[in-house]
Predict the 3D structure of the following.
Amino acid sequence: MQLTKAEASLYAKYRGRDFIEDEQYWLDVFEVYKDKNVLLPVEHTNLNVLKLLKLFECEKCGECCKYKFVPVNAYDIKRLLDSGLDPEKLSDRDGQSYLSSENGCPFLKEGCSIYSHRPETCFVYPLQGPADAESGGKKIKQIRIRLKCRAALKLARKIIAQTMSQGDKLLLPDLTIIPK
């Protein structure tokens, strides 16, 4: 895997240091990975997704509503149209339907006006679709998190710190976790 210049800089700055509790490290991580997906050391199962969503403490900053396109499924589309969405806001690309929100989410007023029936993508934020991974020689799906807001960073930090407390892992500055 090739590191970006920002990742290499982060690695050089913190290499060889115990940085899991270092506030500056996490601020630097947020700068490097803001609006990017990061792998969490958790297998993607429905139960694990629900557990992580319960741990997520939304700060209502609205960053999650600032995507250009939000993937939606058929059930989402029906609910959105029933909520008054202009059908022109929907598009299809590569076999996937999207809600266009280039100028901001059309449902973001003084908060989410469709919160109780928002699209699935919004419901599971900051978690993203799973990534293929390997654990103990077995292929698994691993949870990804989008570091778009500070609350997402806090969740990632909490999960990474829990994993690191087991003592048999090493956290690299680029958030890769490897066995000791």
User: Anything to note?
Assistant: Residues 150-164 form the longest helix (15 residues). Residues 63-123 form one domain.
